[in-house]
Write a structure and sequence with these properties.
With 194 residues, the protein is of the alpha+beta class. The protein has helices at 22-33, 36-43, 86-95, 123-132, 151-162, 167-174, 178-186; strands at residues 2-3, 10-11, 47-48, 63-64, 75-77, 83-85, 102-105, 118-121.
């Protein structure tokens, strides 16, 4: 017989259990998920504080050495089974609360979990930050995987329109709708093509 760690109920011990029921197990998981000391004890051993200096004014990055998710961001399994981005967990451990928006990187180094390199920003601020720093590639025209036309086709479409051909016939030659042809010819799309 043992006493449940959550509710104190005395129960028959089986398989070295310390909890009497699934309900008490869920409560224990929730308590553990909110316990920063317990999270930190598992989190910080997975960090190399001797990482590279990506931006001199910030100092060294602290690199996540365990599992990685998309685009090289660290992946940390929280108590209760939910995964979080490692840099968000670092923010939580440093500030005692989760970021209101995104935990954005000043250093632009995805595996970095140095709290001094992070700031709390909205999704919009994070997107503007990525664009301003040139971290997002914008594919235009035929470089886009969604393109139905090529730069050469657009040049030819504009030449055809200048010679009096209708948008409908131009579109049918290139296998696009009349409105798609008009957008390309008038420069609403494919504006980078001279």
């Amino acid at each position: 017989m043992a006493s449940c760690d959550v509710c104190g109920k005395v129960f028959a011990v089986g398989n070295k259990k310390r909890l009497c029921s699934l309900q008490c197990n869920g409560v224990a998981l929730q308590r553990g998920a909110a316990d920063p000391a317990r999270i930190a004890a598992r989190f910080w051993p997975k960090v190399n504080k001797d990482g590279p200096v990506v931006r001199a004014e910030l100092g060294q990055c602290w690199v996540w050495t365990a599992a990685k998710a998309h685009f090289g961001y660290g992946n940390f399994g929280m108590p209760g089974g939910k995964n979080q981005n490692a840099h968000r967990v670092s923010w939580f451990l440093a500030h005692g609360a989760w970021p209101k928006g995104c935990a954005c990187h000043r250093c632009d180094n995805p595996p970095c979990v140095n709290p001094a390199h992070l700031f709390d920003g909205s999704l919009t601020e994070n997107s503007h930050d990525m664009i301003a720093k040139g971290r997002i590639k914008r594919f235009r025209g035929e470089q886009s995987g969604m393109a139905k036309l090529t730069d050469a086709a657009v040049v030819d479409m504009r030449r055809r329109r200048a010679s009096g051909e209708t948008m409908r016939s131009i579109g049918s030659v290139y296998g696009v709708s009349e409105s798609t042809a008009a957008s390309a010819v008038n420069g609403a799309t494919w504006s980078h093509v001279p």
